[in-house]
Write a structure and sequence with these properties.
Shape of chain A: globular
Largest sheet of chain A: 7 strands, mixed
Radius of gyration of chain A: 22 Å
Number of helices of chain B: 6
Number of domains of chain A: 2
Helix content of chain B: 40-55%
Shape of chain B: globular
Structural class of chain A: alpha/beta
Oligomer: heterodimer
Largest sheet of chain B: 4 strands, mixed
Helix content of chain A: 25-40%
Largest interface: A-B, 23 and 23 residues
Number of helices of chain A: 14
CATH class of chain B: Alpha Beta
Distance between the termini of chain A: 54 Å
CATH class of the largest domain in chain A: Alpha Beta
Radius of gyration of chain B: 15 Å
Distance between the termini of chain B: 27 Å
CATH architecture of the largest domain in chain A: 3-Layer(aba) Sandwich
Bound molecules: pyridoxal-5'-phosphate
Order of helices and strands of chain B: HHEEEHHHHE
CATH architecture of chain B: Alpha-Beta Complex
Structural class of chain B: alpha+beta
Chain lengths: ~425, ~160
C-alpha cells in the first residue's frame, strides 16, 4: 500500500500543479459542460488515486476485524489500522501512539473532550472560553456541556478583519476557566489564529487548550509538541482522506485521567458483571469496531501530503490565495469577508447585492463549485450582518487558472443580474 | 448548458420582484402568519395574512431575507393571493407545486383551472433542482398559515 502513495507528482509547487490535479480523478470531469473547478475543499476535499487505491486494496485483500483474531486477515487489518495511526503520530509529531485516538471526525473529537475531560471536572460557575469565529462543532458541544453542568460559555470577540481580539480574550482567562477551545484556522474567514502564543498564555494561567485543527492540518505543518496544545482535533475528509474518520490528539497525562467516552468492545481489558478494567491508551477511547478502511485511507492521505511536503503545500496555496484575493478585489463591488493579516486557503465574499445562493447557482452552471451560506458559523455571519457568504476555498490541486475561471464566472453573474 | 437556462431562471420579472419586493413589511391586524426557513441557504421569511370572516385574504405581506428566487417567489405570492379566498389560494399552492416539481408545463398551465399568469416566470427553477426549495418556501408558508399551524415551516 505504501508504494501506491509514492506516485504523487506535485513536489515542485509552481510548475507541476497540472500533474498534481491529475492525481485526483474526481477533478477530471465536466459539470454543466464545463471542466470542473473545485473551490470547496474547506467543506470536503477530493481524494487522490493513492487514497482511493489504498482503501480499495484494503477492502479487496486485507479486511477483517481488528485486535481480535489470530487469523491472517485480522492480523493484516490490525497492522493496516495501527500503521495508519503511526503515520498520524509522525505527521503531527505526537509524543507517542498512545496520544492519537481515532474518531469519526473533528466533531466527535471535540464532543469526546467535552464529555470525558471537562464534564467530570466542571461545576456551576466554571467557564469555557471560545471565540466568535468558531465552527458550530466547536460551539454546540460546549453549550451542551454548560447545560449539563451549569457552567458558562464565554466568547472572545473578533474584529472587522475577522481576527480574534487577543487582549479581550486574555482578559477572559480567569481562575474559573476550565478550558480554552479555539480554531487554528477559521473555516468561514480563513483567519489563522496565533494558537501557539495563546496556548502559552493559557498555560501560564493553568488553563488547558483544545485546538480545532480541521482547517489547519490540510494546509499548514502542525507540530503538536511545538504548539504544546493539550488537545488537537481534525478530520480526514478535509485532508484528502475519506469521510467518517478523524483524530483526537491529546496529551497522554490527560487521557490517562479521563474516563472512557463510550463503552463497548475494544476499549476493555476484562469485563465481568462485577466490573470492567479499561484497555490501555488509546484504545480506552475507541469503543466498538472502528472505521478501519477510513483509517487506512487517512494514512494514505498523510503519505500523499508528506510526499509533497507541507512547506510546499503552504507555499503553493498561499500563492494561489494571494492571486485569488487580488483578482477578486479587482472586481467592482466586491465585499471581502475575512481580511485577517494571516490567512490560509479561504476567501469569503459578497458580490454586489447578489445573494450568495444565487451566486452559487450561477457559478455551478459554469462548472465552478463554491460553497455558499453560513458555513456552520452563524455567529460570524451575524457579526458581519449578512445571511451568508460565497466562499472559495483552496487545496493543493487549485491553481491560477481555477481563479481565472472563478472570476470569469462571477462576471457572468454580474451580467445576469444586470 | 448555455446561459439560456440561467436567463430562464433569472428572468427580468424575477429580478424585478427580488430587487423591489411587493407587499414587503409588517401588516396590521394579522389573522394568520407563518415563518419559513431554508437552512441550506439561510433564507428566512415571515408571511402575514389578514383573512376575513368570509375566508377572503384581504391583505398579505412578508418580510425577511433570502435569495432572489425565494424573495421573488414570496413577492409574487403576496401579489397573487390578495383578494382570493383561502380555497383559491390553495389551488395556486397546488398549481405552483406542480409547476416546480411536477409534470405541469407552461402550456399545461393554460389549460388547467388555475391561470398561473406571471407566476409562470418561476418555471425556470425546474432546471435547477437545488433551487426548487427556494421557490416553494413562501408557498409552504402560505399553506401552513392557512392551516393555522404555528410551527415554522422548513424546506429541509
Ligand atoms: C473549523 C472546523 N471545525 C470543525 C469542523 C467539523 O468537521 P467534521 O464535520 O468533519 O466533524 C469543520 C468542518 O466543516 C471545520 O471547518
Amino acid at each position: 500500500m505504501n508504494q501506491l502513495s509514492n506516485n504523487s507528482t506535485c513536489s515542485d509547487s509552481t510548475t507541476s500543479i497540472a500533474e498534481c490535479r491529475a492525481d485526483f480523478p474526481a477533478l477530471d470531469q465536466k459539470i454543466n459542460d464545463h471542466p470542473l473547478v473545485y473551490l470547496d475543499s474547506a467543506a470536503s476535499s477530493q481524494q487522490p488515486s493513492s487514497v482511493i487505491d489504498a482503501v480499495s486494496s484494503y477492502q479487496k485483500h486485507d479486511h477483517a476485524n481488528v485486535h481480535r483474531g489470530v487469523h491472517t486477515l485480522s492480523h493484516r487489518a490490525t497492522e493496516a489500522y495501527e500503521g495508519a495511526r503511526d503515520k498520524i503520530v509522525s505527521f503531527i509529531n505526537a509524543n507517542s501512539r498512545r496520544e492519537v485516538v481515532f474518531t469519526s471526525g473533528t466533531t466527535q473529537a471535540i464532543n469526546l473532550v467535552a464529555q470525558s475531560f471537562c464534564r467530570p471536572r466542571m461545576r456551576a460557575g466554571d467557564k469555557i472560553v471560545i471565540t466568535h469565529l468558531e465552527h458550530h462543532s466547536n460551539i454546540v458541544p460546549w453549550q451542551l456541556l454548560c447545560e449539563q453542568t451549569g457552567a458558562e460559555l464565554t466568547v472572545a470577540p473578533i474584529d472587522e478583519k475577522g481576527q480574534v481580539e487577543i487582549l479581550p480574550l486574555l482578559a477572559m482567562l480567569d481562575e474559573n476557566v476550565r478550558l480554552l477551545a479555539i480554531a487554528h484556522v477559521s473555516n468561514a474567514l480563513g483567519s489563522v489564529l496565533p494558537v501557539k502564543s495563546l496556548i502559552s498564555e493559557a498555560h501560564s494561567r493553568g488553563i488547558p487548550v483544545l485546538v480545532d485543527g480541521a482547517q489547519a492540518v490540510p494546509h499548514l505543518a502542525v507540530d503538536v509538541q511545538d504548539l504544546d496544545c493539550d488537545f488537537y482535533a481534525f478530520s480526514g475528509h478535509k485532508m484528502f482522506g475519506p469521510t467518517g474518520i478523524g483524530i483526537l490528539y491529546a496529551k497522554e497525562a490527560l487521557l490517562e485521567k479521563m474516563p472512557p467516552y463510550q463503552g463497548g468492545g475494544d476499549m476493555i481489558l476484562e469485563v465481568s458483571f462485577g466490573g470492567t478494567t479499561f484497555n490501555d491508551l488509546p484504545y480506552k477511547f475507541e469503543a466498538g469496531t472502528p472505521n478501519i478502511s477510513g483509517a487506512v485511507g487517512l494514512g494514505a492521505a498523510v503519505d500523499y501530503l508528506q510526499n509533497i511536503g507541507m512547506a510546499n503545500v503552504t507555499r503553493h496555496e498561499q500563492e494561489t490565495l494571494n492571486y485569488m484575493t487580488s483578482r477578486l478585489a479587482d472586481l467592482d463591488d466586491v465585499r471581502m469577508i475575512g481580511t485577517a493579516d494571516e490567512k490560509a486557503s479561504v476567501q469569503s465574499f459578497m458580490l454586489g447585492d447578489i445573494h450568495p445562493h444565487d451566486l452559487g447557482t450561477i457559478l455551478d452552471h459554469q462548472g465552478v463549485a463554491i460553497r455558499t451560506g453560513h458555513h456552520c458559523a452563524m455567529p460570524v455571519m451575524d457579526f458581519f450582518g449578512i445571511p451568508g457568504t460565497a466562499r472559495a476555498s483552496l487545496a493543493i490541486y487549485n491553481g491560477k487558472s481555477d481563479i481565472d475561471r472563478l472570476v470569469q464566472a462571477l462576471q457572468t453573474a454580474r451580467t445576469i443580474f444586470g | 448548458m448555455t446561459q439560456d437556462e440561467l436567463r430562464e431562471l433569472y428572468r427580468e420579472l424575477i429580478l424585478d420582484h427580488a430587487r423591489s419586493p411587493r407587499h414587503f413589511g409588517k401588516l396590521n391586524n394579522v389573522s394568520h402568519m407563518a415563518e419559513g426557513i431554508n437552512p441550506l441557504c439561510g433564507d428566512k421569511l415571515k408571511l402575514y395574512f389578514r383573512i376575513g370572516e368570509n375566508k377572503v385574504i384581504e391583505d398579505a405581506t412578508f418580510e425577511g431575507s433570502g435569495c432572489a428566487i425565494s424573495v421573488a417567489s414570496a413577492s409574487l405570492l403576496t401579489d397573487t393571493v390578495i383578494g382570493l379566498t383561502t380555497c383559491q389560494a390553495m389551488d395556486y399552492f397546488s398549481a405552483i407545486s406542480e409547476l416546480l416539481v411536477g409534470t405541469r408545463s407552461d402550456a399545461a398551465g393554460d389549460k388547467a383551472d388555475v391561470d398561473l399568469g406571471k407566476l409562470k416566470a418561476l418555471q425556470g427553477v425546474r432546471e435547477f433542482p437545488a433551487r426548487v426549495k427556494c421557490a416553494t418556501l413562501a408557498w409552504h408558508g402560505l399553506h401552513s398559515a392557512i392551516q393555522q399551524r404555528n410551527a415554522p415551516v422548513s424546506t429541509e
